[in-house]
Specification:
By secondary structure, the protein is α+β, with helices and mostly antiparallel strands. It has eight helices and five strands.
C-alpha cells in the first residue's frame, strides 16, 4: 500500500509561460499603464521642479603684487580643499542669509549647495539648486561675494586673504530635476514587472489540472480523450 498524491504537479515549461503571459496580456498592460500613469502624475504634478545655477572662482597666491605673473602655484593647489570647505561654512552662509534676507537656515543652504574643485586646475565651482531659478542665481553670487569678504576681512581667515578671485557670475538657474521621462520609463518597467509577477502568483495559486498527463499521474488513470477549447459563434 502506498499513499497516493492527489496534488497536481505545477511544473511549467517555457511554452506554458508564453501561453500564460499571452492569455493575461490585457492584465499585464493594465498594470503597466496604471503604474506608468501614477509615476507620470508624481513627476509632473507632485515633485517640485528645481533649477541649478553655478559660477566659478579661482585660487591665486600672488607672491609680489608689483610683479605680474608672480604666483605661488604650489600653495594655491594646497589651499584648494581648504577654500572649498570654507565656502560652505556657517560663517559664510550666515552672511549669505543676511545679505539676501533669506528665510532659509544654514543647513538648508548646505543641503542644496555644492562646492567642488579639480586636481588639475585652480578653479572652484559653486552650484546651488532651488525651486526659484532667480534665487538660485542670487545665492551663488552671494556665496562668492561673502566668501571673498569674509576671507579678506576676518582675521581668523588671514591665510585666505586675497586668495579667492571671482572669474564668472552666475546665470539664471536652468532646469535640474525631476527627470520626468526617466520617471515615466521607470513606471513602465515597474508596472510590467508588477503585472507579470501578479499573473505568475495567480497562476501558481491555481491548483486545477492543466493537462491530461497531470490527471493521469494524479489519479493513476488513463484519459481516453479531451475536449479542446472552442468559441461558440452565435448566428443573428
Amino acid at each position: 500500500m502506498y499513499e497516493q498524491n492527489l496534488e497536481p504537479e505545477n511544473e511549467i515549461s517555457l511554452l506554458d509561460l508564453y501561453v500564460i503571459l499571452r492569455r493575461n496580456i490585457v492584465l499585464i498592460l493594465a498594470f503597466t499603464t496604471l503604474i506608468a500613469m501614477i509615476a507620470a502624475a508624481y513627476a509632473f504634478f507632485v515633485v517640485d521642479e528645481t533649477y541649478a545655477s553655478n559660477a566659478d572662482v579661482m585660487v591665486q597666491v600672488q607672491t609680489d603684487p608689483n610683479i605680474d605673473g608672480s604666483y605661488d602655484y604650489n600653495t594655491a593647489q594646497k589651499l584648494l580643499a581648504t577654500i572649498v570647505e570654507f565656502m560652505s561654512k556657517d560663517v559664510v552662509l550666515d552672511e549669505v542669509i543676511r545679505d539676501l534676507d533669506l528665510s532659509y537656515t544654514t543647513t538648508q543652504l548646505k543641503n542644496n549647495l555644492t562646492v567642488t574643485s579639480s586636481n588639475t586646475s585652480f578653479f572652484i565651482n559653486i552650484k546651488y539648486v532651488d525651486k526659484d531659478p532667480r534665487l538660485a542665481k542670487e545665492i551663488v553670487d552671494s556665496v562668492i561675494n561673502q566668501s571673498i569678504l569674509v576671507a579678506n576681512g576676518n582675521d581668523a581667515f588671514s591665510t585666505l586673504k586675497n586668495k579667492i578671485t571671482r572669474t564668472s557670475f552666475a546665470d539664471m538657474g536652468v532646469y535640474e530635476a525631476p527627470n520626468k521621462p526617466l520617471y515615466v520609463a521607470i513606471g513602465i518597467i515597474l508596472g510590467g514587472i508588477v503585472g507579470v509577477g501578479f499573473v505568475f502568483i495567480k497562476e501558481l495559486m491555481n491548483n486545477s489540472y492543466r493537462t491530461k498527463e497531470q490527471l493521469e499521474q494524479a489519479f493513476d488513470i488513463q484519459v481516453m480523450g479531451t475536449i479542446p477549447e472552442f468559441e461558440v459563434k452565435e448566428d443573428f
